[in-house]
Amino acid sequence: MSKREKFNQDPSIQISKMNVIIPFSPDVPCDSNGQRMWWAFLASSMVTFFGGLFIILLWRTLKYLWTVCCHCNAKKKTVHRITTGDGIKRVDKEDPAASEVGWMTSVKDWAGVMISAQTLTGRVLVVLVFALSIGALVIYFIDSSDPIESCQNFYKDFTLQIDMAFNVFFLLYFGLRFIAANDKLWFWLEVNSVVDFFTVPPVFVSVYLNRSWLGLRFLRALRLIQFSEILQFLNILKTSNSIKLVNLCSIFISTWLTAAGFIHLVENSGDPWENFQNSQALSYWECVYLLMVTMSTVGYGDVYAKTTLGRLFMVFFILGGLAMFASYVPEIIELIGNRKKYGGSYSAVNGRKHIVVCGHITLESVSNFLKDFLHKDRDDVNVEIVFLHNISPNLELEALFKRHFTQVEFYQGSVLNPHDLARVKIESADACLILANKYCADPDAEDASNIMRVISIKNYHPKIRIITQMLQYHNKAHLLNIPSWNWKEGDDAICLAELKLGFIAQSCLAQGLSTMLANLFSMRSFIKIEEDTWQKYYLEGVANEMYTEYLSSAFVGMSFPVICELCYVKLKLLLIAIEYKSDQRECSTLINPGNHVKMQEGTLGFFIASDAKEVKRALFYCKACHDDISDPKRIKKCGCKKYTQKTKTAAYKKIRLACCFDCSRSERDCSCMPVNVRCNMDSPRRDIPLSAVSVNDCSATLRAFEEDQQLALSPKKKQRNGGMRNSPNSSPKIMRHDPLVIPGNDQMESMDENIKKYDSTGMFHWCPSKDIEKVILTRSEAAMTVLSGHVVVCIFGDVKSALIGLRNFVMPLRASNFHYHELKHIVFVGSLEYLKREWETLHNFPKVSILPGTPLSRADLRAVNINLCDMCVILSANQNNIDDASLQDKECILASLNIKSMLFDDSIGVLQANSQGFTPPGMDRSSPENSPVHGLVRQTSVTTGANIPIITELAPLAKPGKKLPVISFSQDKSSGTSIQMITELVNDSNVQFLDQDDDDDPDTELYLTQPFACGTAFAVSVLDSLMSATYFNDNILTLIRTLVTGGATPELEGLLAEENALRGGYSTPQTLANRDRCRVAQLALYDGPFADLGDGGCYGDLFCKALKTYNMLCFGIYRLRDAHLNQQSQCTKRYVITNPPYAFELVPSDLIFCLMQFDHNAGQSRTSLSHSSHSSHSSSKKSSSVHSIPTTNRTNRVKSRDSRDKQNATRMSRVGQEKTWFTDEPEDTHLRTIQIKPVNTLSINQVIQFKSTSSLIPPIREAEDEC
């Protein structure tokens, strides 16, 4: 019997040698003695490594010896230089082989290219080698479950075949690396080379011996160290933190797995000197566990090393592994912790748009934006908001994002980085909104940052729509330098300084308008109040917003007033403007156009309503289906027409120029239009750009220009005709009658026409530039000048203050839709150094003066007659230089309280210059027969709630039998609380300090406070809502800018970008046509044609009457705060009511906001009236100077009332004989301690004196340079 048969039959011997002898399988030709062959595998690796190392060292040694021995010969082989006859040395070319590249060098370069990651082939090869190394490691993990050494047939073992293929590839790649290596010795000692030495040769031995040995195949785990390099080759890792994190992790994991493989080998094999008797069966993953608890110094003891080799290895591994664990793990955790929490990428949702919001992202700016953007009144907002900012949000902002997680996402990054723009999918975004820091200390730097953001975004995706906030108006010009910036495609820049100062300027013309407009483009929820307080009516108006909607085809052919009345009465909607496009001209926004404009198909309307759903009535209205419906809520989409997008698109193509309302023909075929006007229309000037904001159609403006030309060039003809002509904007029955024509009026009228110049666009009054020294008034000059009905601007600033752009404040007050005599004089009170810096943009505006001083000086304020001004504006350029938010408005608040605490002489207060009334277009207020609308006044005439008394219309204007009272006060002093003021604030919470008698809580929102509701305070924060309003409808910004800026257009912005100043231009039909646009005014109900409605009438009746009679569109009420109390003594403060309902009851003290048509006749009427007043005043000889009030008159102010009463009867009779008519109305019909007494003739004489000097004669220095 053989030994093999005895071994198989003796089970005791087989069990005792189980750990030593390899398992035997009869189908595998293995060693019959069961002897291990691990030394053969190890020897192949060692021989390869040390053999190659020996050859490299031997080669280097021989090369060194050869170099030393042949050193002399090498010196002789120098380059021979031959000197030619010209003295030029040249190289002898007797060795051409030296200049050629050897084949070894070529092969080396080729191998270097193949393994380099700089080429596509090299990158593919590197990635493939790494992937195959990981595959070989995975095969090792699979084979680790088998015994360390086992007999396997290469032709039947699939894993061995795959491992063999991998190693053949590794061998080829090793050859390439060896050829490309410059230093063969260092290459031989590299980690990757060592891995190949101990993993590749054993595979070939396995095929030869038909047995497998796990051996050192675990060294393939060291290839994981190159993982970060592979990711960098694939452009996956780009940041230093990510590269460092992957490096640390790959080194830690590869060391861990490699050490676990060594423990697995020695523990499952045993010690060789112990004849492998002390081995223990441990799986690879148990060894991984053992190494982890060893590195972390925990050492549970459940698994431990038994072999001597294993324990010796653990001793050294603890030293290195503990150090690595203690240093790598904390750093890895720190990098992971510092990794951007919001560093992912946005995943777009099909069917849902998204916008990107960037710039100044703070809790305040984001909360204000989201509150308005996601307001419920916007119907369904199916837009996702993606915020992008380079700073992670704080806890409060993060909580805000979580509350809106369904529609808001935040990503950390910068729009200046194209990678971050790609993360938020800017190319597929519907728009990008850039918020600005309104409270920054350097506005120009903030604007520069936002402009750079625009450049970066446009550079990445030129077609993206961008809406950005800008702080300074002059920085908007830089946006025009961006080639892809196109406002026609929806790009918009919301200039906060332009709009803020424009709102304040409009308040000088109609106090409270800033509050009304700010509430219209802001989304406010309706707050219902049951108590009958002023807040109830104010909040009802606050719930209204501005919307746009296409008008139904049922309105086609109707004029704008008819449609406006129908919408208000039947649909409960307020239509204030329309927009249409045509092939001949660009988009035009018509604000309250006249009867001559007929509606076309596809016209877009601007509505004031409380909900977006209500505006749909204008689109769904059908005369056949809805004519007999009284409830507007029942007006729904009917089956008569299909309102599809295709219909809307086709409607735009059908739009043509407006037709003449009189003959129902087009403008070119209009039979009622003069021939010369039609000829001018046939050849329009192409070089003059059309304004983007025109108010009336060309037919009306050309007719108006033709009439103005006839008046200017033929004044004598007008005089022969009795001064009577039709007004284009008035009723056909109303004729102009001017009985106060005096000799020499022709020359004066021509002179007025010559000095009335406009800028090149015709949108603003213009004059040649003036030196600042010519407009500076000293305190004595200002005190001697009769300043009244003017605007006082108290400005805080110094040399270092940032410019706020006062041009944006002056431009609305110099709009060309005012006649020259209607312009209010503007007096700036502030630091001369600061105003010199602003003067460059102001020197082309007429009627501007400067009083160097400080707004906190009462002497300066009295010198400019602040108690006689129409409006006092308080601005500050130093607000953003203070860190404490509560102190940012300290200067404005102190100036406001200072003015309110001032006391003035009541005899001066009687003058109240701001009682210059206006008349609806076509009405002549200078004649008692043709001036029934003497109740119409400019806003600041009677509507401030101030206590300064005014003289009302004289007795001949009153109805028969009606005694006309004069309002006076029991006090001899008038306080500064009666002065109309508007104060600019930066911090909303500081509004509580303006009014000491209000009960506003400090936490109350700005729009709910009394100063804001009354129009006496304005904060730039209300403009935040314009961002979302502009996104949903860019036409809203156009309309707001038109109403606020006085007519600023993109063409004008382009001119200002070129010259930074207005440029004068000749009056052409096109530029003069731009004057014919609406302006906001206020309508008084105390007297006049609407007096019957003022006492208990309905607002809807007033709306319809004003619209039908004078084309005046009413849209709000400025009411006394306590008017609902019906008390005799009431507070003089007023508040704003936006778009009251039809049945809203009126009171006589109400002032009505209205859009007034441009009056072509006002200039001629005012000239005649002014000359008449001046003639009457001169004949009475009550003043020795037309510039100042005589000293005798100033001393006569303190005379006793008895002496003044003795003169009243005589002067009253003289006034009655001269029949001098004025259209001045009392400022308030419900004043404190009102007394009704006979007309004071001294007061009348003072009014005559004041009106003649203020309306005809300019102030000192202004007369020299008046344009």
Automatic annotation (TrEMBL):
GO terms for molecular function: large conductance calcium-activated potassium channel activity; metal ion binding. It is a multi-pass membrane protein. PROSITE patterns: RCK_N. Its main location: membrane. Residues 711-746, 1165-1224 are annotated as: Disordered. The keyword Acetylation does not apply. It is found in: Cell membrane. Residues 352-494, 788-932 form the RCK N-terminal domain. It catalyses: K(+)(in) = K(+)(out). InterPro entries: Ion_trans_dom (IPR005821), K_chnl_BK_asu (IPR003929), K_chnl_Slo-like (IPR047871), NAD(P)-bd_dom_sf (IPR036291), RCK_N (IPR003148), Slowpoke-like_C (IPR048735). Keywords: Calcium, Cell membrane, Ion channel, Ion transport, Magnesium, Membrane, Metal-binding, Potassium, Potassium channel, Potassium transport, Transmembrane, Transmembrane helix, Transport, Voltage-gated channel. Residues 1199-1208 have a biased composition (Basic and acidic residues). The chain crosses the membrane at residues 37-59, 124-142, 162-180, 245-266, 281-300, 312-330. It holds the Pfam family Slo-like_RCK. Residues 1168-1188 have a biased composition (Low complexity). One of its GO terms (cellular component) is postsynaptic membrane. Belongs to the potassium channel family. Calcium-activated (TC 1.A.1.3) subfamily. KCa1.1/KCNMA1 sub-subfamily. This is Calcium-activated potassium channel subunit alpha-1. It comes from Gymnodraco acuticeps (Antarctic dragonfish).
